[in-house]
């Protein structure tokens, strides 16, 4: 936690310095450079604060009560929300699943799972890569939610520790703080689901799957595919 507080303090310090620099810049080029540094610092601070808020909500009853919502609509909304970042990383997003699927659960928890998995697939992907969000179901029952990519993946020896707060893979190249998968694990417990890690698209990258063991009241008319084997947590 001390490391996270230090990083947040650094980001806020950069924001303060760059705001001051904006009042002193003399040229258009300097103004643009300062704006870029300010925008990056704000983005890092916002990402960290959002993840800490997610963890706090999931750790308490503030996460919310179960209520019916459309899983398919939520999934497509998350993809749309982060499509610009995917474009910047040159990662192609795809959705595979039903047009509509009603699920009685904690909407914020599932949104936190999908958001963090999609962002991980984007930020740890490779230029020209792919990330697929897949909703699996049988008849009217939700079975699993998966995010698969064809990035560098994570070796089996490191997979279990991914769910520890502030843990990051040895080859992690972005500015994350190791909170995303901890949020996924905490949210999955709120949803009564298990988490499975396996190989991703085409046998490369990573696939993270939430499997729902308890029947739920759902409504749809399509079917799903099978699950790959993998490590369950």
Describe this structure in words.
By secondary structure, the chain is an alpha+beta fold. The protein has two domains: 2-59; 66-232, Heat Shock Protein 90 (2-Layer Sandwich). It has helices at residues 2-22, 28-59, 71-81, 83-88, 107-123, 156-159, 180-191; strands spanning 67-70, 91-96, 102-105, 129-138, 141-149, 193-198, 207-212, 231-232. Strands 2-4-5-7-6-8 form a six-stranded mixed β-sheet. The chain has a two-stranded antiparallel sheet with strand order 1-3. The protein starts with a helix and ends with a strand. Residues 1-7 and 215-223 have low confidence and may be disordered.
Helix percent reads 40-55%
Find the count of extended strands (DSSP E, 2+ residues).
8
Integer-rounded radius of gyration: 19 Å
Shape: globular
- C-alpha termini separation: 24 Å
Average pLDDT score: 75
Strand order of the largest sheet: 2-4-5-7-6-8
Under CATH, the topology of the largest domain can be stated as Heat Shock Protein 90
| CATH class membership of the largest domain | Alpha Beta
Please give the count of helices.
Answer: 7
CATH architecture of the largest domain: 2-Layer Sandwich
Q: What's the number of structural domains?
A: 2
Q: Unreliable runs, pLDDT <50, ≥5 residues?
A: 1-7, 215-223
Q: Which structural category fits the helices and strands?
A: alpha+beta
Report the order of strands and helices.
HHEHHEEHEEHHEEE
Tell me about the largest β-sheet. Answer: 6 strands, mixed
Instruction: Assign the CATH superfamily of the largest domain.
Output: Histidine kinase-like ATPase, C-terminal domain
Percent strand: 15-25%
């Amino acid at each position: 936690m001390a490391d996270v507080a230090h990083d947040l303090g650094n980001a806020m310090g950069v924001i303060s310095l760059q705001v001051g620099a904006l009042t002193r810049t003399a040229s258009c080029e300097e103004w643009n450079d300062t704006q870029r540094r300010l925008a990056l610092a704000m983005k890092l601070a916002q990402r960290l604060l959002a993840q800490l808020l997610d963890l706090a909500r999931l750790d308490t009853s503030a996460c919310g009560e179960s209520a019916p919502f459309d899983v398919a609509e939520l999934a497509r909304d998350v993809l749309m929300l982060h499509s610009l970042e995917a474009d910047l990383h040159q990662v192609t997003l795809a959705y595979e699943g039903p047009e509509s699927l009603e699920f009685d659960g904690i909407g914020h928890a599932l949104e936190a799972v999908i958001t963090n998995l999609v962002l991980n697939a984007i930020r740890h992907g490779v230029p020209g890569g792919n990330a697929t969000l897949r909703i699996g179901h049988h008849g009217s029952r939700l079975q699993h939610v998966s995010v698969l990519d064809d990035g560098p993946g994570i070796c089996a020896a490191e997979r279990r520790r991914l769910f520890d707060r502030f843990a990051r893979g040895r080859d992690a190249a972005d500015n994350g703080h190791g909170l995303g998968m901890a949020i996924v694990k905490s949210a999955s417990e709120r949803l009564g689901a298990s988490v499975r890690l396996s190989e991703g698209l085409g046998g490369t990258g990573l696939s993270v799957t939430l499997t729902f063991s308890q029947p739920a009241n759902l409504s749809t008319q399509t079917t799903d595919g099978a699950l790959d084997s993998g490590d369950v947590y």
